[in-house]
Predict the 3D structure of the following.
Amino acid sequence: MGNSNVVVYTSRDCSYCEKVLDKLTEWDVEYEERNVSEDRSHFRELQSMSVYGTPATFINGEKILGYQERKLKQSLGIRDDRFIQTDSMNFS
């Protein structure tokens, strides 16, 4: 999907981390996972960006904390058909 640079910081036993990774996989988005439980340097990277929890997703530098499906879709340019634009509705 697109040319987005996606990095997801995760940790062990984090259900929301799994949700983010599952959605990215479902949407065919390539991503780099950086597990802070397995590599302390990844945790230090996160701290340097004033982030202290996971999941933390960076899409082309934009930070999305936690599991926020709408924000992930918006940042990736994925259309969300659940929300109909009123411009296209015909009330006549």
Notes: The helical segments are 15-26, 40-48, 69-76. The chain has a mean pLDDT of 89.
